[in-house]
Amino acid sequence: KVGTGVVTGKSGRLALGRLGALCEQLAELNSDGFEVILVSSGAVGLGRQRLRYRQLVNSSFADLQKPQTELDGKACAGVGQSSLMAYYETMFDQLDVTAAQLLVNDSSFRDKDFRKQLNETVQSMLDLRVIPIFNENDAISTRRAPYQDSSGIFWDNDSLAALLGLELKADLLIILSDVEGLYTGPPSDPDSKLIHTFIKEKHQDEITFGDKSRLGRGGMTAKVKAAVNAAYAGIPVIITSGYSAENIDKVLRGLRVGTLFHQDARLWAPVTDSNARDMAVAARESSRKLQALSSEDRKQILYTVADALEANEKTIIDENELDVAAAQEAGLEESLVARLVMTPAKIMSLAASVRKLADMEDPIGRTSSPLGVLLIVFESRPDALVQIASLAIRSGNGLLLKGGKEARRSNAILHKVITDAIPETVGGKLIGLVTSREEIPDLLKLDDVIDLVIPRGSNKLVSQIKNTTKIPVLGHADGICHVYIDKACNLDMAKRIVSDAKLDYPAACNAMETLLVHKDLEQNAELNELIFALQSNGVTLYGGPRASAILNIPEAPSFKHEYCSKSCTVEVVDDVHGAIDHIHGHGSAHTDCIVTEDPEVAELFLRQVDSAAVFHNASTRFSDGFRFGLGAEVGISTGRIHARGPVGVEGLLTTRWIMRGNGQVVDGDNGIAYTHQDIPIQA
């Protein structure tokens, strides 16, 4: 549906450039096999402009001195409709598209036979690749006052578009306006903000509307009413600008333009608005309520979360499939799409990990206490949201989450499932979901409310956060994990470990990115067996200076590269000392492994490699909070302060000193000798 403000310019004349761009987009959709129906306003405004011009031409100088009477709106509609349709026909003819005019009245829709014939006629036109162009027949409408009269089945072209969408079972309604979408107030007000997703429960009583359309009948009030009616009847609606070229194409490609109306919108965004500080303060207040609960009550919350995940399996997977489809359509790498996928088995596994976390010893109390409020920015892995949220509940921390945009729908439904499982005595605001990247800078300024930031993602993301906040940051920038195959290795074991470290989950941060091989293995042809084990499973290999010459493979651009895919770097080293030096020079202090049967060499490697996790004869993929028995992990830290390696519940706690006395005072330590000894801790 295209509005009067788009069809005409400020003078009331046709906006030829905008209409031309619109017709080109519709013609392209038509040729691509889409069934397109156009509802076009603009006839009244265009007719008024033409009649005013004719009135001016036919007036004497004396006539012009008299007060000008308002032109009859119905006459304007009759004159303007023919002009408007003539333009559409001319433009579509140039694009080799046939258009048809259909003028309808409100009263016609009361006739069941009319609606049946309408469906048949429109479907026949669509089958012939004709674009039907609808408009209300204002020239003979029986409305008493078109600008105020909103009675009947439809009352303007916005409501007509919604009615036709329902009657003709449309898949999508796009309403093109003269503004970017729906704002919280008049678009001219600098304090007004664009609403990307309209939530009826949240926005219907909060929006302040400005004036109606400059030339047309309804304005934004009418558009919103029509959009809500259509959306809640099952037809998604987008209100966006008709001034921007290619906006229709952008909508169909899933880009974030305009305002979305959808019957499930409440599942995708919080129902109440809150700024960054409000969200953080609410999380802190809820965390204090959580800490006041008994250990058994906190454990029960996690059991309820686990049950809720399983009970909502179908809803979670339905939303996740939309994310996966969008990612595939956007051309994301296979490894990144794999991170997104939620399956029944994965949901069952997540529920099991939440229950395991619940069964662990209560970490709160005694001398440990929660950090406070955590801000965690994580990659497009929906399962990470569940792990992080369950750890926050178990550790008694408030939590703010910002996930990758590719997992927007999955994160929203998981967040809702989890927060709905939190009792009202604590409140769902314990876990806030940040839905816009624009909110992150404001959150990073809240060093008086947020106690720790944990970024999970690229080196660029982690570095950027560290450079823009005073809040302590915990995490790792890269996961450049090495496997060193010593000359004293068991070759079959080496092949198993190397294959698992690279192929079990190539996108994971604990996957092998560099394979280091002792030089003697090249002479014994054992290097070739290792290489074959990778290449036969589809791994693309890049070499360091020595390996690329020996194996005739492309040279890696850098040893400091995290592929996150079925690719890795190979290099030949002289011995274990060469391997250690390489790891210290090019690694990220994440996880590194040696495969050898020589215990002395193994101990040397384990003692000297300065990484968060160092393994002997085991895959780097074991570097994981769940596999370490932590229940889950909030991330992996490569720092050396507070927590290192997979960070579970203990990493989200700090120390408190609790003293019980019966009136003692310091008094300058006069006559006092201190005795320190271990005594039983009173619960």
TrEMBL record:
Sorted UniProt keywords: Amino-acid biosynthesis, ATP-binding, Kinase, Multifunctional enzyme, NADP, Nucleotide-binding, Oxidoreductase, Proline biosynthesis, Transferase
Catalytic reactions of this protein: L-glutamate 5-semialdehyde + phosphate + NADP(+) = L-glutamyl 5-phosphate + NADPH + H(+); L-glutamate + ATP = L-glutamyl 5-phosphate + ADP
Gene3D superfamilies from the UniProt entry: Acetylglutamate kinase-like (3.40.1160.10), Aldehyde Dehydrogenase, Chain A, domain 1 (3.40.605.10), Aldehyde Dehydrogenase, Chain A, domain 2 (3.40.309.10)
One Pfam assignment: AA_kinase
Keyword NADP (UniProt): yes
Domain Aldehyde dehydrogenase, first and last residues per copy: 272-522
Domain Aspartate/glutamate/uridylate kinase residues, every copy: 1-241
SUPFAM superfamilies: ALDH-like (SSF53720), Carbamate kinase-like (SSF53633)
Stored InterPro entries: AceGlu_kinase-like_sf, Ald_DH/histidinol_DH, Ald_DH_C, Ald_DH_N, Aldehyde_DH_dom, Asp/Glu/Uridylate_kinase, G-glutamylP_reductase_CS, Glu/AcGlu_kinase
Pathway listed: Amino-acid biosynthesis; L-proline biosynthesis; L-glutamate 5-semialdehyde from L-glutamate: step 2/2; Amino-acid biosynthesis; L-proline biosynthesis; L-glutamate 5-semialdehyde from L-glutamate: step 1/2
Annotated PANTHER family: DELTA-1-PYRROLINE-5-CARBOXYLATE SYNTHASE A (PTHR11063:SF20), GLUTAMATE SEMIALDEHYDE DEHYDROGENASE (PTHR11063)
Family (UniProt): In the N-terminal section; belongs to the glutamate 5-kinase family. In the C-terminal section; belongs to the gamma-glutamyl phosphate reductase family.
Function in brief: P5CS plays a key role in proline biosynthesis, leading to osmoregulation in plants.
Name of the molecule in the record: Glutamate-5-semialdehyde dehydrogenase
